[in-house]
Design brief:
The protein has helices at 31-35, 121-127, 133-240, 243-273, 283-298, 300-325, and strands spanning 14-15, 18-20, 42-44, 65-67, 88-90, 111-113. By secondary structure, the protein is mainly alpha-helical. It has a six-stranded mixed β-sheet with strand order 1-2-3-4-5-6. One of its GO terms (cellular component) is nuclear envelope.
């Protein structure tokens, strides 16, 4: 219900299908109360101080006739086109300059009065004078045509805007794809460079291993050559060494002879200078020793030469023994 004290009971204002709220000094429209009276298809709000209609007012889709003349309206709701059953609209004596674009959706509108409003030029030209029933009907028809043209312009502008937005979005997506492609290409190059780097490192390692292997082969060949040379030297030494066994055999014979002589001397000394000289086994030994002494005296020169030879042989034997030990 309106806050105006003059509108205390809406039922008192209803007459059949008409609600008369004219001359009630209203500044606001009691939309909630009017919505409850769905049988009221005619609403008279003329001669009040209404400055604007709330968007909820356009939910009163059962309205067929609406009188808003001589108010203070400066604009109408953008969703005015929701009043699809509206056939008669009186906006005389307000402060309107333009109509909402949705006005073009009032396809049932047959009568319209826009006199005494500061309309913009093109709208005023379309509205005409509206001095009688015929002119008001023409006003409704021409204003609807005018608003449909504006609606088409708005639709075209919106379509262009949507196309521009789509184009901008397309360009944005294209730039995004291009950026992603560049990033992908950069990553691909980085991977290729990294792969090439690894390949070069691998080749360098293989080259180093090959060089080591080559050096190893050279060292082995060198050792083999040195081994062959040493073998030749050893072979030569082996070839030249056969005389040694003869020398060793001669020394062994001399050694045995020396031992034999020493043994004979020991036996002779035992039989001659000990208590065994009287024994039967020493008699022939002493006899041989005496004979030998006699013969030796006779062969003193020969003995001396023999001793010298024995001494030389013994010295040579000792030297060879010492050398073999070293």
């Amino acid at each position: 219900m309106s806050k105006n004290s003059k509108v205390l009971n809406l039922k008192d204002k209803i007459n059949g299908n008409e609600v008369d709220l004219s001359l009630c000094n209203l500044t606001e429209v009691p939309v909630r109360e009017l919505a409850a009276v769905t049988k009221a298809t005619v609403l008279d709000l003329s001669c009040n101080n209404i400055i604007s209609l709330p968007p909820e007012f356009c939910n009163l889709t059962h309205l067929v006739k609406l009188d808003l003349n001589k108010n203070q309206l400066t604009s109408l709701p953008d969703n005015l086109g929701n009043l699809v059953n509206l056939q008669h609209l009186d906006l005389f004596g307000n402060k309107l300059t333009v109509l909402p674009v949705s006005f073009s959706q009032l396809r049932s509108l047959k009568w319209l009065d826009l006199k005494d409003n500061p309309l913009e030029a093109n709208l005023a030209k379309a509205a005409g004078d509206c001095l009688d029933e015929k002119q008001c009907k023409q006003c409704a028809s021409k204003v609807l045509q005018h608003m449909r043209a504006i609606q088409e312009e708005v639709d075209r502008a919106r379509e262009k805007r949507l196309l521009r937005e789509k184009e901008l979005e397309r360009k944005k997506e294209a730039k995004q794809r291009e950026r992603e492609a560049r990033e992908k290409e950069a990553r691909k190059r980085e991977k290729a460079e990294e792969k090439e780097k690894r390949r070069k490192e691998y080749n360098a390692q293989m080259a180093a291993l090959a060089a080591q292997e080559q050096q190893k082969k050279k060292n082995e060949e060198k050792k083999k050559k040195n081994g062959q040379a040493a073998g030749k030297v050893n072979k030569k030494a082996v070839v030249e060494s056969p005389p040694k066994p003869k020398r060793s055999l001669l020394g062994l014979m001399l050694k045995l002879l020396l031992l034999l002589l020493l043994g004979l001397v020991g036996v002779a000394a035992t039989c001659r200078f000990t208590d065994l000289q009287k024994e039967a086994m020493c008699v022939p030994v002493n006899t041989a020793v005496n004979d030998g002494i006699s013969w030796a005296k006779q062969q003193e020169v020969v003995v001396r030469q023999l001793v010298q030879n024995l001494s030389s042989a013994a010295k040579e034997f000792l030297d060879s023994t010492q050398t073999s030990k070293n």
